[in-house]
Records
---
Amino acid sequence: MHKLNKNILLVEPDYYTRFPPLGLLKIGRYHMEIEKDRVGLVRGNEPKDNPDISYADDIEFNGEPDIIYVTSLFTWASKPVHDSIVHYKDLYPNSKILVGGLYATLFPKDAEKTGAKVLPGLFRKAENQKPLYELIDDVWDGSIIFSSRGCIRKCDFCAVPILEKGIHNVKYSIKSLVHKEHSRIIFWDNNILGAPNWKSIFDELQEIGLKVDFNQGLDARLINDEVAEKLSKLKMQFIRIAYDRQNMGKSVKNAIDKLSNYGISPRKIVCYMMYNFEDTPKDIFERIRKLLTWGAVAYPMRYQPVLDPDFSLKKNSYISPNWNKEQLQKIAEARRIVGFAGTFPPYNKLVERFNETSNFEELIFEKKSDENKLLDTTKKSTSNRLKNAKPRYNKKFDWRKTRKKR
Ligand code: SF4
């Protein structure tokens, strides 16, 4: 017989993430509104006595959880997921425990070792629910939306063509998915410009007037005058594009020029740059140098296979045949020492440095005094930015420490 008003505990394990657990929040809405259950959310492993649970509408559990949903994310962050399952199983031995999310979907056998039941892929019944932002509204102010899923391309280093395949789940309006108290909208579409709805979505965003972040990046090859003009009318802090291979240089330069023609400063363009795939250290150095001379910000991203059990379960374990450990360390050091927050911004000094040197080793060690100047600037800006952040949880710098910007 269907038991009414179940207690549903949503668990986000204690891994680093910059975004709240969207899947769990959708499941929360489904249970609250469709099943009329009580819903609570915890982060990490809370003690049984006095656990820090956020409840929807402040309606607390009457007893122990009936169902516990544990989410997962990066494949290399499986340990906190296993720890959470063990922890809550110990605490609530009579509850049903389900584990979903990216890691559990890609490595179900590994996730099953915990004894939890694996829910692979999307939880269909909840997919079209509006996330239950009420559970996190004291710390989070952005509506996360997929206006489409999938991609028109098949890049060989990317898991999207395998996991999502072509464009699907296309929405022509997203207004109803924007939480009324939020000040920004974050899109997680894999390739929004490749989807047939992009114009309707951009027009609607202009009308809504909130800040927008196309977080997964925009396809530089699809940025033409019409796209650039529409983007220039949106409130965006950054425009994210990718420059993963040398042969994309022409499209990237063209996108930067087009956006610039419509008044968007290249300094607002952040460019993801993959390395440690089929490239070489020289190749990524050259790409960054070119990008900086075009005035945009470089964000190097180390390639890691997503679907290979030999490498995917351990972060940064993959080393491409064209790279070695020392070379990978040098780029990481360069990002830390002469970069800013992991990026290489087009500061004049840094552009000069890239023009004068030919590899990351020289970049770090030459001109020590300039280096210290760059380091000082970086430290000052970082400390100013974080000074007023009010973390709710005294843990790592993740979404729960993100300041609300109202
Ligand atoms: S364009 Fe982007 S999302 Fe699409 S396959 Fe290539 S890397 Fe993946």
Note: Residues 151, 153-155, 158, 160-161, 190-191, 219 surround iron/sulfur cluster (CB under 6 Å).
---
Amino acid sequence: MSAIKNIEDFLSEQEQARVLGKLGLARRLPRKVYSDHDFLELEYTKWLDRTWLMVGRVHEIPNPGDAMPIPGHPIFLIRDSQQTIRAFYNSCRHRGHELISGKCNAGAAIVCPYHHWAYELNGRLKAATHFAGYRQHSHPDLDPETFGLKAIRTAVWNNWILININGEAPTLEEFVSPLAKFYQDVDFSQVKHFATVRRHPLAVNWKTAMENNIEPYHVPMVHPCTAGGHPFDNHRIIDDGPLVGCAVDIEDSSFTNRAVAKSNQQLDSSGRFVLRVPNLYIAAHAPDKLVDSLILPDRSDPGKCWISHACYNTSEADVSQQEARLWQDTQQQVLEEDVAVLEGVARGFRAPVMDDGGVISPAWEACVSGFYRSMLTALKF
Ligand code: FES
Ligand SMILES: [Fe+2]
């Protein structure tokens, strides 16, 4: 439970107004929003628990019994014998031992490592091993329905697995509809995964990472080679309610960033980089690639988050091994370049001069303001 009941207990009206102010004057969130444990809990209870959180990818658990913990959360994902993807609290109903500690195949049952209680893949208690005495795996007073695993509402959109922790959010279809509409030209049915890069965990608040992912301001400076073909003069900012991010149009550009040597072909294309708040982020690179970013907060530590990027092909053409490796290497380099500046922000943000946050560029960071607006609006209820 958060010791903070309302956003007003933590951020004054004046502080909120500064963040939501006119572009040019608008501020970044004050530093306490990135480091306070009680605020993190408020973020969950008022916002992240009540909406859909992206937590994994369908291709990561392809077979019945495949399971993996959700980083930073006491929850795991599993594919059951009927191919349904489920999420459960990662806690045995006997004395609470963690059930899934790493990516694995659970086989026919999820067995607790402690006293070997066994659960069916749909969460039902199968055997309370030796609970009532030697070889007596059940007891009349132990209702298997009551002591099954505690499920969390789960839904799948294309290749992405989302959970709604409090179970009361509008449907996933409603949640994703702005993003689905934005990407209506993309054939998601063709999506084929071919590479993943990750940083697990990273000593940075998740919002710092998300802000960086949606704004194009840093790209020419931080990614001069990896995104060397991205022009500085032809970016569009997307700030449209729950959708925030940016887009770059190569075709009509004067390529003002071209003075920098180009080192790869992968990212030198028109692209859209879009977040459906809070964390469903998908970038589309012309003509036929998608890169998702899974940025997860850590529920127990505001100074920690978990990042991975996965690459997909959206056309029928196969991706050669060589092309897959090029994308993998480029994405890894992009990630390392971003990590370096994110860690730099985390260090710099310790200084009290950042108590009232930084400032937001009116040309490049309206999307960051839009992200704050969504968050503060959710926290008010
Ligand atoms: S804690 Fe799981 S069987 Fe005892
Ligand atoms: Fe970046």
Note: Residues 253-263 have pLDDT under 50 and may be disordered.
